[in-house]
Amino acid sequence: MLKDAATAVRERAYAPYSNFKVGAALRDAAGAVHVGCNVENVAYPEGTCAEAGAIAAMVAAGQTRFTEAFVIADSPQPVPPCGGCRQKLAEFAAPGAKVTLATTSGLIFETTVADLLPGSFGRAHMEASGG
Ligand code: THU
To answer: Which alpha helices (DSSP H) does the chain contain, by range?
Structure first.
């Protein structure tokens, strides 16, 4: 279950600076689950988000499409992915990919990658440049 995978990996987050642990899990188009947690750095901008870690794990496993994502944190409200992660998620999202945002206390917000990043920049925008 994506929720269990995201909850478990969250415990392994390295977040000594923010003390805000985040876990993310992706189900790829073949059904396999990939997980990631945030990994901070004393040089703060070098830290990476849980979503980025899960995407890296999926790509390293040989998959480039996910159908479902689950993100969990110990926050008062389900934590929305940062702007950069929305773009990263959009790169690898299958059409209609579902995203569940959750708190460790059990609150859930269900959305989609498309709703998280309306008007997103995509490959089609580069077509005239031969990109
Ligand atoms: N963070 C994530 O990993 N994912 C999110 O969706 C929001 C924020 C991390 C980045 C940083 O390590 C900590 O949470 C505080 O911003």
So the answer is: 2-10, 50-60, 83-92, 113-116
